[in-house]
Amino acid sequence: MEEDNQCTKPHAILVPLSLQGHVIPFTNLAVKLATNGFTITFVNTQYIHHQITKSQPNNKTEQDDIFAAARKSGLDIRYKTVSDGFPLAFNRFQNLDQFLEGHLHVYPAHVDELVGDLVQSDPSINCFIADTFHTWPETIANKYNLVNVSFWTQPALVLSIYYHLDLLRQNGHFGFHDKREDSIDYIPGVQAIEPKDLMSHLQATDLSSPMLRIIYKAFHEVKRADFILINTVQELESETLSALHEKQPTYAIGPVFPSEPTKSIVATNLMSEFDCTQWLKTKPHGSVLFISFGSYAQVTTKDFEEIAHGLLLSKVSFIWVLRPDTTSYEETISYPLDLTMRLKTEG
C-alpha cells in the first residue's frame, strides 16, 4: 500500500519564462504545491540561475541550489538548470531579436532533452507546468505523456485578450497598418476597451517579428493545455474567468505569494535587493507611491523625465525601481539633476 501511495504522489516539472515577473510566481507556486504534497522539479535557465546567484549579498557560488533551504524545511523540491542556447556573457536584451529566435528554435530542444532525461530517471513525474508564453509545452507534454498545465502569471483579462487574437484580427484591430479605432467590445469576458489600451506587443504592425511569432504560437499552444492556472483572484475577475472556463478548464489560484513576502526561503531576485521596510515604517499608511517597469519593459527618455518631474511636483513619498537600462539597453540611465538633488537631500 505504501508503494502505491508513492506511485500516485503528484510530481510536477515547472518551467517559468526567463523574466523576473515570471520566475517569482513560479517559485511561489512550487513552494505552495510542495507544501500540499507535490514533488516538484523546478527548471531555470543557466542564465537566470547565474543572475540570481550573482545578486546574492553573501556571494553564493554558481553551484548553489536556490531551493536548498526549502528542502531543509521539509519540501520536496528538486532544482535543475538548462541552457537557453546562448553563453552567459551574451547580452540578451541588446540582441533581443536574436535571443527571441533562439527562444523559438533552440531553447525548446534543450528543455525537451532535459525533460526526457528527468522522466527516464524518475517515472513518478506525471505533470508539466509551463509558462503560458512558452511555445512548446503541448509538444513536450504529449511526447512524455504528462498532464499539460499552463500557468499564466498576469491578470485573466490580459490572457483573454491574447487568447482571442483571431477576433482582434478579424475585426481589424490588430495586424493592420490602418487599424480600426472604434472600441473593442467583442472579447469574451472583457468589457469594452479602446485600441490604444491594448498591450504594447499588440500595437505592432510587423507580424513577422520574433516577438509576435512567439505570441501567436504561444497562444495557439495554450488552447491545447489540459488546464490553465491563473495568478489572480476569482472574485476580482469572475466574468473573465468564466468566459475562459467555457473554452477549457481555467482556475484562479492567486494571489500566489510567500507566507512572509519579505522573508522568502528561496532566492529569486535577478538584481541586488534593497530592503526599504524601515524607511516605509516611518511613512503614514498608504502614503507611498510605488513605480516599477519590471525587468524587461522600457520607457523613452522623455517619458522617464516627465515621470520624474511629476513625482517632484507631487511632493509625494515614493519608491521607484529603476534598472540601469530602463531607457536604453545601450547606455545607463541618466537622472534629471533636480531629482538627483532631491534624492540626496532626503537621504
Automatic annotation (TrEMBL):
Keywords assigned by UniProt, alphabetized: Glycosyltransferase, Transferase
CDD domains for the chain = GT1_Gtf-like
Q: List, alphabetically, the InterPro entries matched.
A: UDP_glucos_trans
The molecular function GO annotations come to: quercetin 3-O-glucosyltransferase activity; quercetin 7-O-glucosyltransferase activity
Which PANTHER family would you find in this protein's record? FLAVONOL 3-O-GLUCOSYLTRANSFERASE UGT76E12-RELATED (PTHR11926:SF1494), GLUCOSYL/GLUCURONOSYL TRANSFERASES (PTHR11926)
Q: Which family does it belong to?
A: Belongs to the UDP-glycosyltransferase family.
What protein name does the entry list? UDP-glycosyltransferase 86A1-like
**UniProt organism field:** Prunus yedoensis var. nudiflora
